[in-house]
Prior knowledge:
Elements: H1 2-11, H2 18-29, H3 33-53
Helix pairs in contact: 1-2, 2-3
Amino acid sequence: MKLLLYEENLEKGFDGSFPYDRLSIIYRRQGKFADEIRILEKAISVFEKVNKQRPDRDHCGTFTS
């Protein structure tokens, strides 16, 4: 049940780290490495977009002064 909710969050482009973290851990423990990689690649895509939208961060995602 939780897997479906986490996957639903991912499909909606949720920009919090929790579902990505949980799913990657769950899939790794289950030996579903292709799913783990899919989740991590999705997380990278989502967080790259979030960082580009934040004017207080540079291209590496660190704060600028």
